[in-house]
Specification:
CATH superfamily of the largest domain: inorganic pyrophosphatase (n-terminal core)
Number of strands: 23
CATH architecture of the largest domain: Alpha-Beta Complex
CATH class of the largest domain: Alpha Beta
Distance between the termini: 86 Å
Structural class: alpha/beta
Number of helices: 25
Strand order of the largest sheet: 7-8-6-9-10-11
Shape: elongated
Length: 693
């Protein structure tokens, strides 16, 4: 106190000047006084008496301003200091009692200050000065030191959910405004952390998400096939058991079930129930198979589920598209469509072979009508055309030519699979010079003629030989034996996708028998289609059913020769050695899978050799599925094969590929073969743990 009095009693005055808006206020008063002087000069010029009065008034006004300025300044300054002091105290009190928990952190995350509410939430004293990560491990130094000045993270504490808002403050700016310290180089950053309680908000969001409507369609895949093999009494029993199984399954989850037909059901439930069903991997798929009243074929079901739409109608449309996709993939699976996202579950059972030829006959008649209404027919398979795609394309061309329509096959760069076959067709005088056309020639034909484009052996638009044709042609036909994926050819005038067929050539052979009475295959055409079946069935060792042998018998009657085909399919020495090395260096993984790398350097078609090696690995005892990674140019081609226990299609779909239940593949870019093998192993481990395989 004595020191303060000494200071106050000394003659030293605190030199403080006005600034800001207050300074501007006084400057305007002075400026106004000078303006009055100009006015006085004008008055003096016109009327001396008025001018003198004005000067007197101006002097009085200016003097009053000066007196007020110097006399009132100490009082004004005292009031300002008093206001600033109280303002600062109030500001600090507000910040201390701020309802939102807040803390100031140093550059390393150490707590400099926290308000009362932060102490209550964390259970720490407001003077706690340890690192923030000791309270919230989620707020680490890496989280703080980001390029963003503001960011949010989400944490949980004391059964509460918080959105943590982190604001970065540059210390240089704070130091520049302080008179107590000087800056020495870069001073770093401070961080202001706020905890926004979102417990109730998240609970409401979760409740809203749980109650969102989900619409499902449940179809029994093979009810008619099973019923045909038992008597009428057992048919009724099977129907009752299946219905009870479906109703009981969804009743346990409080779902609503409505029977639409003898083998079709509509189900409605919410998203919370769906999550529970997903955790059990849709147990209905396996539960329906336990129905046995003397039937030698097990019942299977498919489910199409739609969610994420804005209404029940939109979810129903999603469900309808999902069930069509599930059936197109062979059934015995669940397809879940959530907006633009599609997930697959199940699909472990090989689809039963078709019991009748009705579908093939109907499709043959529809194909004939389409071709008859067009000027020309252009056929193409997938890129890197193999024998199945080539033979199927040849069969379609023969169908078109049998009704007098010009037909062409689109080919890109010829590979060793089909080069010799193409040469045989070109040498034959039976076919026109433009029987095979390039991509450019095909696009020109589509532009100049009313054409029909027939796609065989694939249903994925980006994998066709010439994708540009799909955009230019209005009439598109898809004939394929691979399972459908979410990526499919849109707006096809006719789509015949039959996953139970062994090959596209088998499907075309059936269609030809119903297409036209006078369809006659040449020996070369029959050989090429027979070769396609041989390749895709691994010489009738895989996927070959009764219909496959019937198609082969038809081709034999049409002139196919087994010896000619076998000679045409022989490998060269380099390919054989590369395949043998891949088999020799294979490793067994998880006691069920054979994995190898095929280094087919110098081989013209490495991916084909890799596929052949994958087929060979299935001959090893205990191998349920085989995977061969083959490097070629800037990609690694993965060939996956199985016999009956593993669905390799769903495995390859996890890696961005697809295919058939027993034959599938994928392409990886920017990886080495070794990295591809590691990725295969990771996918196999994950799917095994999930129960997906």
């Amino acid at each position: 106190m004595e020191s303060k009095r000494g200071i106050m009693n000394s003659g030293t005055k605190l030199k403080v000047k006005y600034s800001g808006m207050l300074k501007l206020h006084w400057q305007w008063n002075v400026a106004l006084a000078f303006t009055l002087l100009i006015l006085d000069a004008v008055l003096m010029y016109h009327e001396r008496t008025a001018g003198m009065i004005g000067i007197v008034f101006t002097v009085f006004y200016f003097t009053a301003i000066l007196i007020l300025y110097f006399h009132l300044r100490p009082g004004i300054l005292r009031e300002l200091v008093d206001f600033a002091t109280h303002y600062g105290l109030i500001q600090k009190e507000i910040l201390e009692d701020f309802e939102i928990p807040a803390a100031l952190l140093g550059p390393d995350g150490k707590i400099f200050w926290m308000n009362t509410r932060m102490g209550e939430v964390t259970g720490r004293d407001v003077h706690y000065r340890k690192n923030i990560s000791s309270i919230f491990p989620e707020i680490s130094r890496n989280v703080l030191m980001t390029d963003s000045d503001r960011r949010d993270i989400y944490i949980s504490a004391n059964e509460m959910n918080f959105r943590v808002h982190i604001q970065r403050l540059k210390m240089d700016e704070l130091v520049d405004e302080s008179a107590m310290v000087e800056k020495d180089g870069e001073t770093g950053w401070l961080f202001m952390v706020y905890l926004i309680d979102e417990t109730m908000l998240r609970a409401a969001i979760q409740e809203n998400r749980d109650n969102k409507p989900v619409v499902g369609l449940v179809y029994i895949d093979n009810f008619d096939e099973v019923a045909e093999r038992v008597d009428e009494t057992r048919q009724s029993i099977i129907n009752v058991f299946a219905e009870r199984k479906i109703y009981k399954y969804f009743d346990d989850y409080a779902g609503l079930v409505k029977k639409l037909d003898k083998d079709k059901y509509l189900v409605i439930f919410n998203n919370k129930i769906l999550e529970q069903i997903k955790e059990e991997r849709f147990a209905l798929l396996e539960g329906i198979k336990t129905i046995n009243v003397g039937n030698d074929i097990r019942l299977t079901v498919s489910m199409g589920i739609g969610m994420g739409g804005g209404s029940y109608r939109e979810n129903y449309e999603y469900a309808r598209g999902s069930i069509e996709l599930a059936l197109g993939r062979g059934g015995d699976q669940v397809v879940l469509k959530d907006g633009d996202r599609t997930d697959f579950f199940g699909g472990k059972t090989q689809r039963a072979e078709r019991a009748t030829y009705v579908k093939a006959r109907v499709k043959a008649e529809a194909l004939r009508e389409l071709i008859m209404g067009r000027d020309i027919v252009i056929t193409m398979g997938h890129s890197i055309t193999d024998m199945d795609a080539f033979g199927a394309a040849v069969g379609v061309c023969r169908a078109a030519m049998s009704v007098g329509k010009p037909a062409h096959i689109v080919l890109g760069d010829l590979n060793s699979n089909i080069r010799d076959w193409v040469a045989r067709f070109k040498e034959s005088k039976e076919y026109p010079d433009d029987f095979f056309v390039t991509h450019e020639e095909a696009q020109l034909l589509v532009s100049n003629f009313n054409a029909a484009v027939v796609v065989v052996d694939t249903n994925v638009p980006r994998r066709v030989e010439c994708p540009e044709l799909l955009a230019k042609c209005e009439t598109i036909v898809v004939l394929d034996h691979h399972r459908q994926t979410t990526e499919m050819i849109e707006n096809a005038s006719l789509s015949y996708i039959e996953p139970s067929a062994s090959s596209a050539c088998e499907m075309i052979a059936e269609i030809l028998q119903y297409f036209e009475a006078n369809v006659r295959l040449s020996n070369l055409e029959a050989d090429s289609m027979y070769a396609g079946i041989i390749i895709d069935t691994h010489s009738f060792a895989a996927k070959a059913g009764a219909r496959t042998f019937e198609a082969a018998a038809y081709l034999r009657r049409s002139g196919a020769d087994v010896i000619r085909v076998r000679k045409a399919l022989r490998d060269d020495m380099d390919s054989y050695k590369a395949r043998a090395d891949a088999v020799r260096n294979a490793e067994k993984f998880m006691d069920s899978f054979a994995i190898s790398i095929c280094n087919a350097k110098g081989v013209e078609s490495p991916s084909v050799v890799g596929a052949q090696a994958a087929n060979e690995l299935l001959n090893i005892v205990g191998v349920k599925a085989s995977f061969v990674a083959t490097p070629s140019e800037d990609r690694v081609y993965i060939s996956a094969r199985s016999i009956d226990e593993v669905n390799v299609q769903v495995i390859m779909e996890r890696m961005g590929g697809g295919g058939h239940m027993n034959i599938a593949g994928a392409q990886l870019s920017g990886v080495t073969p070794e990295e591809a093998v590691e990725k295969i192993k990771e996918v196999l481990k994950t799917m095994t743990e999930e129960g997906a395989i």
